[in-house]
């Protein structure tokens, strides 16, 4: 691995990551408070949450491609393979429908964290893991809360 240092996320990275939680938390909360008398909103909100969750899942997989690109010809195939798994699972989540899809996205977010817990130290990125854990908790809970709102 060619990376050095373990500085962790910059203040800007932290702000942007926390800002990335706004759609998760906001859309999940809206699913609980928007009345049934607003059918267009009730249709758009779960689709927006599921789409955003799928997008973030793909982003988390793509990070691994970015990491191995720095390794030159010694790119680990396992990291490249893992890098596409979240995107494929996110695509399946979009096909499953809203509540099951949100539950799958929540599971994908946790799978990404588990893999990152193993691989980030290899790239000397373990200082990012506390933030990744908090983001995974809040994003996945938002997806589960959104699914619960749909199933009530």
Domain module count: 1
End-to-end CA span: 48 Å
Average pLDDT works out at 93
From the alpha carbons, calculate the radius of gyration and give it in angstroms: 17 Å
Oligomer: single chain
> What letter string, H or E per element, gives the SSE order?
HHHHHH
Structural class: mainly alpha
Runs with pLDDT <50, length 5+? none
DSSP helix count? 6
Tell me the number of strands.
0
Characteristics of this structure?
152 residues, mainly alpha, 6 helices, 0% strand, elongated
Could you write a compact summary of the structure shown?
With 152 residues, this protein is mainly alpha-helical.
Written account of the structure:
This protein has helices at 11-19, 21-33, 39-69, 77-96, 98-119, 129-151. With 152 residues, the chain is mostly helical. The chain has one domain. Helix 2 packs parallel to helix 6 and helix 5 (98-119) runs antiparallel to helix 6. The longest helix has 31 residues, at 39-69. The mean pLDDT is 93.
Task: Summarize the topology.
Elements: H1 11-19, H2 21-33, H3 39-69, H4 77-96, H5 98-119, H6 129-151
